[in-house]
Amino acid sequence: MVDGKLMAVVRREYLERVRSRWFLIATLFGPLFFGALMFLPALLASKNRQGAEATNIVIVDGSGAGLGSRVASQLTGGLTGAASGPAPRVSVVPADSIAPAESLATAEVMAERAKGYLVLDAGTLAAGKARYAGSNITALFDMSRLERAVQRAVLDLRLETSGIDPEVGRQLTSLNANVVTERLTKQGRGGSGQLNFFFGLAVAMLLYMTIFVYGLNVLRGVLEEKQTRVAEVVIASVPATKLLAGKVIGVGGVGLTQLVLWLTMSFTMYQVRQPILAKFGAASAPLDIPEIGLGMGAVLLAFFVLGFTFYAGLFAAVGATINSEQEAQQAQMPVVLLLVTSVMFVQNILLQPDGGLSRFLSMMPWSAPIIMPLRMTVAPVPPLQIGIALASVALGAVATVWLAGRIYRVGLLMYGKRPTVREVMRWVRSR
Fold first, then answer.
1. Who's near 369: CB < 8 A, 6+ residues apart?
2. Residue 124 and residue 127: Cα distance in Å, rounded?
């Protein structure tokens, strides 16, 4: 039979947060952020990726081999001339007159008649080294394009000097090996390895942020009750343990609601991604997101619920021992650091999901709620390890909730100075 007092606390904690404007803002912001990641890169890639004036530069050619004209030709599209923008202006000078030519080119840039200037000399012919100065050096795509133009121009010149047709030489040297990875599981093919990598990272960070944010909500909720003296009234009719349980369940329900809404809206945007991009003429390869069945979805949900309960108990215990926001900033640090250790090793887990460190962290109650879901989305994990991890988090959650309950029932009505560790331990041992 459902306890009426417990449900009253759960209802209050849940509705109070769900009805707030910040819940609505955060719920909408998440899908909008993920939607931007889905749509913007493809939309931007469909436009002209280089600026209209990316080729508006001065080329100071002191190589003595006509290298400047070759680089200019490469920048404007080579033989096809397909690239947009003004053609670079080539200034051919003797090797001992490069410095004065640079001064003139600098004046051109300062007067905003050019974006920058490129210096080619004997070192460019010998080792492919060139110098560029301009106002657009942070435009990474433009700089990469400039490097490729110099590389191709030097290569063409060397091939011609060796008596080889530059076009044939480019065909022989332009091979780029591309190894496409695909995950194989007991159920068959599991999609791209790279996508599994980023998908696993997204799952881990989503769980981390949700547990962290709503765990802090529990702490602040307890602190608010102490500061407003509401606890003195409520605890007269509701036992402290039920009040704590209702708070954890209510706030956890808010986090779960927001998580489900985020996933639902993000999945909907993923489904309509291709048709919308097609209307804008932005073709994009489909994202083969790893399939999550009902079983795996239930396990991920269990890790979230148990992980949140584990940390909510710790945050509630901290909240019961403090009296102000200033104290909260200091007192919450051990719990926050315990949670942060889970994401500190995310890169190591992604690189070696079956390594010793990965197995250890996925079994510990403080890190398993984040590390085990991460491992499960990037590599097959034996069911025994998943079961051990779930049991570990469950036992840890029971322990922290019990500990929080012992501290909460005494600390909720304690005001004034912050208790020492010895006093808190005495609260835990008291009957």
1. 207, 211, 303, 304, 306, 307, 308, 310, 342, 393
2. 6
Please tell me the predicted confidence (pLDDT) of residue 231: 61
Q: CA 397 to CA 366: how far, in whole Å?
A: 9
> Could you report the per-residue pLDDT of 219-278, keeping only the tens digit for each?
887 777 777 666 666 666 677 677 777 878 888 888 888 878 877 777 777 666 666 666
Which residues neighbour 129 within 8 Å (Cβ) at sequence distance 6 or greater?
123
CA distance 352 to 366: 20
CA pair distance 75, 153, nearest whole angstrom: 10
Domain spans of the chain? 4-40+190-429, 57-170
Q: Which two tokens stand for residue 228?
A: 């407003």
Least confident of 36-50, 155-169, 224-238, 359-373: 36-50
Instruction: Give SS3 for 191.
Output: strand
C-alpha 313/C-alpha 327 separation (Å) is: 18
In CATH, what class is 57-170? Answer: alpha beta
Query: What is the rounded distance in angstroms from the CA atom of residue 102 to the CA atom of residue 88?
Result: 15
Phi, then psi, of 280 in degrees rounded to 5: -90, 5
pTM of the model: 0.63
Tokens of 230: 């509401």
**Helix, strand, coil in percent for the chain, rounding step 5:** 65, 5, 25
- Measuring CA to CA, which residue among 238, 251, 292 is closest to residue 408? 238
DSSP calls for 39-56: HHHHHHHHS-SS-TTTT-
